[in-house]
Write a structure and sequence with these properties.
Elements (H helix, E strand, L loop, with lengths): L25 H10 L14 E2 L11 H7 L10 H14 L3 E5 L2 H12 L5 E4 L4 H9 L3 E4 L20 H11 L7 E4 L12 H14 L3 E4 L3 H11 L8 H10 L3 E5 L10 E5 L2 H14 L10 H14 L2 H20 L12 E5 H4 L9 H13 L1 E2 L1 E3 L1 H4 L14 E5 L7 H16 L7 E5 L10 E4 L1
Parallel strand pairs: 1-10, 3-4, 5-6, 6-7
Antiparallel strand pairs: 2-8, 7-8, 9-12, 11-12, 13-14
The structure holds pyridoxal-5'-phosphate.
The site of pyridoxal-5'-phosphate has 15 residues, from helix 4 and helix 5.
Length: 460
């Protein structure tokens, strides 16, 4: 018999251990936030109730991963955990050669140094903070080639991570293919709100870059989440497993950098993986300088073991459905309260549109930074600014003024419950109610690099 009752996204796991949290009063939170210079990055985690600062390294590991931690082979060279990880990367993602690094930016540093020459252009589907900085430090210049829809928080286009091939073609015509270091493609584009790229678009990009002899380097930090959206939204992929889609995505690119602290369900770890032997050889040489020997890259054997197991768990259909399902659940709640969020809901968090939430606060008074501070004051929920502070300054010192001024509510994997999601939405709705009384901020300390991590603010 047909039923109207929909099956929910419920978790394919149960709790075996819990971590107790401190509950704080409004007065305690006010004191903590002032001490932190209105920067949620500078709060002490014990003063935070629900921590949505990032989904990076904050996942709950499975009992199997913890068991794997006990099987760390802490040999300096040739740890068996490295060989396990190498096997898993090859079989799950399909890339040929692996260089482990302590986290994603370690891989970005090495790859940028190898592939980018001074004056090169690096086109990409929207910038990411550490990725672009390493590209610039290596002498390159990032150029945004994401489709225009990605910069419009209200546009419901399902694949806002797509590349606009005409933008890429313009760069190739202007500078010549030789000046293009590679095309930098992120899956589930973080700065656009966790928006996926379609396989159709990636195939077209592959055909174009092949014709011009340009490499595609994949920022595969959230490739499984991207694959889930392809399964749900792209024609002809409804019956394919997330695992199969992940492999197909990777097969259309030449190599990748990975922050395993996201998709791969570990607290620390990353790698660089590449199909070209010569690039691999150079990377294997360089990792010794910056990270550690090529069979551990700054990681303990146990970290590599947990990563190998986490990668396998990350491409499981039931896992990824519950992971993204929880995020979508929160998104629906926020929308019900009338809170302006980036649409469609992305894979790893809810991105609240601060410009719409606080239209009376200009970008120069740090709209999103202000909103993140107010949400913390209300309930102890910690979020992150993704706007003008994160965008930082151009190499010539001018501020970037990004179109998107967002607050990111990032959901750690397998950590919080549906009741927590309810509290988050209710708290944001309460701030929304009193939005007209909220005033902006001024920056009183600005670090030179990646300023959003350590900048300090005062109330205007
Ligand atoms: C987190 C992240 C990185 C950097 O990785 P780390 O492990 O934090 O160094 C790179 N790209 C994307 C898309 C990320 O989300």
């Amino acid at each position: 018999m047909a039923t109207k009752i929909k099956r929910s996204w419920a978790e394919p796991y149960k709790m075996k251990m819990v971590e107790l949290l401190k509950m704080t009063t409004p007065a305690q939170r006010k004191k903590a936030l002032t001490a932190a210079g209105y920067n949620t990055f500078l709060l002490k985690s014990e003063d935070v109730y629900i921590d949505l600062l990032t989904d990076s390294g904050t996942s709950a590991m499975s009992d199997r991963q913890w068991a794997g931690m006990m099987m760390g082979d802490e040999a300096y060279a040739g740890s068996k955990n490295f060989y396990h990880l190498e096997d898993v990367v090859k079989s799950v993602y399909g890339y040929k050669y692996l260089v482990p690094t302590h986290q994603g930016r370690g891989a970005e540093n090495i790859l940028s140094k190898i592939l980018i020459k001074k004056g090169n252009i690096v086109p990409g589907n929207m910038y990411f903070t550490t990725t672009r900085l390493h590209q610039e430090l290596a002498g390159g210049r990032f150029e945004d080639i994401i489709i225009d829809e990605a910069h419009d928080p209200d546009n419901e286009f399902p694949f806002k991570g797509n590349v606009d091939l005409s933008k890429l073609d313009k760069l190739v015509k202007k500078y010549g293919a030789k000046k293009i270091a590679y095309v930098s493609i992120a899956t589930s584009v973080n700065m656009a709100g966790g928006q996926p790229i379609s396989l159709k678009n990636l195939k077209e990009l592959r055909a174009y870059t092949k014709k011009h002899g340009i490499l595609i380097i994949h920022d595969m930090t959230r490739v499984a989440e991207n694959a889930y959206f392809i399964q749900q939204k792209e024609k002809d992929y409804g019956n394919k497993s997330v695992k199969a889609i992940v492999k197909e995505i990777c097969s259309l690119t030449d190599g990748a950098t990975m922050s395993a602290k996201k998709d791969a369900l570990v607290n620390i770890g990353g790698f660089l993986t590449i199909n070209d032997w010569n690039i691999f050889e150079e990377a294997r040489n360089m990792v010794v300088v910056y990270e550690g020997l090529h069979t551990y890259g700054g990681l303990a054997g146990r970290d590599m073991e947990a990563m190998a197991i986490g990668i396998k768990e990350s491409v499981d259909d039931d896992h990824i459905r519950a992971r993204v399902g929880q995020v979508i659940y929160l998104g629906e709640k926020m929308k019900d309260y009338g809170i302006p969020i980036v649409r469609p809901t992305g894979s790893h968090g809810i991105f609240v549109d601060a410009k719409k939430f606080l239209p009376h606060i200009p970008q120069t008074a740090y709209t999103a930074q202000t909103l993140a501070a107010e949400v913390y004051l209300d309930s102890g929920v910690r979020t992150m600014e993704r706007g003008i502070v994160s965008a930082g300054r151009k190499p010539n010192g001018e501020n970037y003024f990004p179109k998107l001024e967002l607050v990111r509510f990032t959901i750690p994997r397998r950590v919080y419950t549906q009741a927590h999601m309810d509290v988050i939405a209710e708290s944001t709705a309460r701030v929304f109610e009193r939005r007209h009384q909220i005033k902006g901020l001024k920056m009183v300390y600005e670090p030179k690099y990646l300023r959003f991590f350590q900048a300090r603010f005062e109330k205007l």
